[in-house]
Design brief:
With 362 residues, the chain is of the alpha/beta class. 40% of the residues lie in helices and 15% in strands. It has 2 domains: 241 residues, Type I PLP-dependent aspartate aminotransferase-like (Major domain) (Aspartate Aminotransferase, domain 2, 3-Layer(aba) Sandwich); 96 residues, Aspartate Aminotransferase, domain 1 (Alpha-Beta Complex), CATH 3.90.1150.10. It has a 7-stranded mixed β-sheet with strand order 1-7-6-5-4-2-3, sandwiched between helices. A hairpin with a 7-residue loop joins strand 8 and strand 9. The mean pLDDT is 94.
């Protein structure tokens, strides 16, 4: 009944079981010297088909802020969309940890494009000590609009960045949803496309508190141990973070969880789009739906006990009076809950139609 966020969910039983096993295993070395943590590099290197340097952290904010701090100097700029989580939802953490400045770039369906990046950089005098110097691009996969960059789109940004000496960071809080939606190898939308470092998310997809910073250019990780410690994100009992990621990767659990969440989002969107006055603002590529609902439908759903976020955007057409809402599905979203949401929305639409002036006059 709760479609407000994939953060409202619990944890996958396999991950909880892995934590219990780690707790029962007895003493282990702290600070990542345990055997569970030590095998993560090899596991992720296999998944990404590339040498990696992996650093577990507990939050996505830490993963984004710390990884970007390794890419940019304090006088640098980080190019990101106006909707990017690093800009809107992290309370200045990126700036605090890096000293750098986020340089806003208009997005298209939540995505950066080489053309928009070029237009943003054009007025900056490169090499001028008075100007913040662009140093990195940060893109989100899946995006804050629920869309997904294709391998070609990531590669185009990677090529743009390489030509200009910029590093590329990917905020992958919903990376599993992107990979599952695209059906591609993880390498195709990361290092093969020019990504230097990935914030590899697990919390939204079945873990309790688990993200990882994954460097594909391992030279960039040379001082990361110190950055993580200085920022307060070196967990003493690291095995409990690593055990989550270990279970998350086992038997492709991360992809199975993401595929289910995506399937439920598609099911939900298809059930809503034929209702009167309902429109999607963006394609549904992963597990987020941005949908405009007339007041009668939105009010009926809320009265029916469903939870979802009012996204605060004014009507695209004021005459239609439809407001934007965000719906999010997750690894444990039940088909029955999706179908109940659709049925409630349809009932509310019928009630609104019956109460309309046209219906009354008829």
């Amino acid at each position: 009944m709760n479609f407000s966020s994939d953060n409202v969910t619990g944890a996958h039983p396999a991950i909880v079981e892995a934590l219990a096993k780690a707790a029962a295993a007895g003493p282990m070395p702290p600070y990542g010297a345990d055997p569970i943590s030590e095998r993560l590099n090899a596991r992720l290197a296999e998944i990404f088909e590339h040498e990696v340097a992996v650093f577990p952290v507990a939050t996505g904010t830490a993963a984004n802020a710390l990884s970007l701090s390794a890419l940019v100097p304090p006088w640098g700029g980080i190019l990101a969309t106006d909707e990017a989580h690093v800009e809107v939802d992290e309370c200045g953490a990126v700036e605090a940890m890096s000293g750098a400045r986020i340089q806003i770039v208009p997005g298209v369906e939540g995505k950066l494009t080489p053309e928009a990046l070029a237009a943003r950089i054009a007025p900056i005098r490169l090499g001028d000590q008075h100007h913040v110097q662009p140093a990195a691009v940060s893109l989100t996969q899946a995006t804050e609009a629920g869309t997904v960059y294709t391998p070609r789109e990531v590669a185009a940004i990677g090529a743009f960045a390489k030509e200009r000496g910029l590093r590329v960071h990917m905020d992958g809080a919903r990376f599993g949803n992107a990979v599952a939606g695209l059906g591609c190898a993880p390498a195709e939308i990361t290092w093969k496309a020019g990504v230097d470092v990935l914030s590899f998310g697990a919390t939204k997809n079945g873990a309790l508190a688990e993200e990882a910073v994954v460097f594909f250019d391992t030279a960039l990780a040379a001082n990361f141990l110190y950055r993580r410690k200085r920022a307060g994100h070196l967990v003493s009992k690291m095995r409990f973070l690593s055990a989550q990621l270990d279970a998350y990767l086992a038997d492709d659990l991360w992809l199975k969880n993401a595929a289910h969440a995506n399937e439920m989002a598609t099911r939900l969107a298809l059930g809503l789009i034929d209702l009167p006055g309902v429109e999607l603002d963006h394609p549904v590529d992963a597990n987020e739906i941005f949908v405009r609902l007339p007041p009668g439908i939105a009010d009926g759903l809320k009265a029916g006990g469903f939870h979802f976020y009012d996204w605060g955007a004014p009507p695209a057409d004021p005459a239609r009076d439809a407001t934007l809402y965000r719906l999010v599905t997750a690894f444990d979203t039940a088909e029955a809950s999706v179908d109940a949401f659709i049925a409630c929305a349809a009932k509310a639409a019928d009630s609104a139609a019956d109460a309309s002036p046209a219906a009354e006059s008829a």
